[in-house]
Specification:
The protein contains 5 helices and 12 strands. By secondary structure, it is α+β, with helices and mostly antiparallel strands. It has helices at 56-74, 87-101, 116-120, 160-176, 198-204; strands spanning 4-7, 12-14, 27-30, 33-36, 44-49, 77-83, 109-111, 135-140, 146-152, 190-192, 211-214, 217-220. It has 2 domains: 4-158, Glutaredoxin, CATH 3.40.30.10; 177-220, Antioxidant, Horf6, Chain A, domain2 (Antioxidant, Horf6, Chain A, domain 2, 2-Layer Sandwich). 26% of the residues are buried. Helices cover 28% and strands 25% of the residues. The protein starts with a strand and ends with a strand. The structure holds benzoic acid. Benzoic acid binds at residues 51-52, 55-58, 132, 154.
């Protein structure tokens, strides 16, 4: 009953997931058998939805997701797709991708025919489509907290580099207690979180080992 906001006779309404909140529980039928959120404990997870199988933009996205999958796995990060299609449709689609494009899709895909997972995660936007999930991405950490949420419209295929970069940023900031600037890439300087008191701000100006533009904007190497 997590995330249950209110319930009527014929419809359950769930609060939308929020950054920092526990990821909504799910148990779902996938192309790799039944999977539950708990199965991912101790690993990072990118849970993403696509509008429909056998559509052109989604096909390019699946090939691109597969291309980043080895890199994500090196980062202890799994991929899990979802659409409101049957498992038979998913199997047929990934078989076609392998046959026609030579790419084997190795990550599982949820067959969310009852819309249980897509409803809990806010992947359905009726003004965009009544029958398909939008292009959503949820980054869930190894403690099963939601760490990032991204939505794209039906018309725009997603940029995979950004998802890799985002997980790299989250894992780096967790490990080092820092934050990352715009367009940060691994190897670039990171930002030291700004002081929270007047006293700490005054102390910051005496600290060494940082490149400071001002007391509130200091960068360092890690
Ligand atoms: C596509 O993946 O090509 C697509 C899916 C839904 C609406 C428009 C395009």
């Amino acid at each position: 009953m997590d995330h249950l906001e209110n319930q009527t006779d014929d419809q359950t309404v769930y609060a939308l997931p929020r950054i920092g909140s526990p990821a909504p529980h799910f148990e779902a039928v996938t192309t790799h058998g039944k999977l539950r959120l708990d199965d991912y404990k101790g690993r990072w997870l990118i849970l993403f939805s696509h509008p429909a199988d056998f559509t052109p933009v989604c096909t390019t996205e699946f090939i691109a997701f597969q291309e980043i999958y080895p890199k994500l796995r090196e980062m202890n990060t799994e991929l899990l797709g979802l659409s409101i299609d049957s498992v038979y449709s998913h199997i047929a689609w990934v078989s076609t991708i392998e046959e026609k494009m030579g790419i084997k899709i190795e990550f599982p895909i949820i067959a969310d025919l009852d819309r249980e997972v897509s409803t809990r995660y806010g992947m359905l936007m009726p003004d965009e489509s009544n029958t398909e999930t939008v292009r959503s991405v949820f980054v869930i950490d190894e403690n099963q907290a939601i760490r990032a949420i991204i939505y794209y419209p039906m018309s725009a295929g997603r940029n995979m580099d950004e998802f890799v970069r985002l997980v790299q940023s989250l894992q780096t900031t967790d490990k080092h207690g820092v934050v990352t600037p715009a367009n940060w890439r691994p190897g670039d300087q990171v930002i030291v979180p700004p002081p929270k008191t007047q006293e700490a701000a005054a102390e910051r100006s005496q600290e060494t080992g940082m490149d400071c533009v001002d007391w509130f904007l200091c960068r360092k190497n890690i």
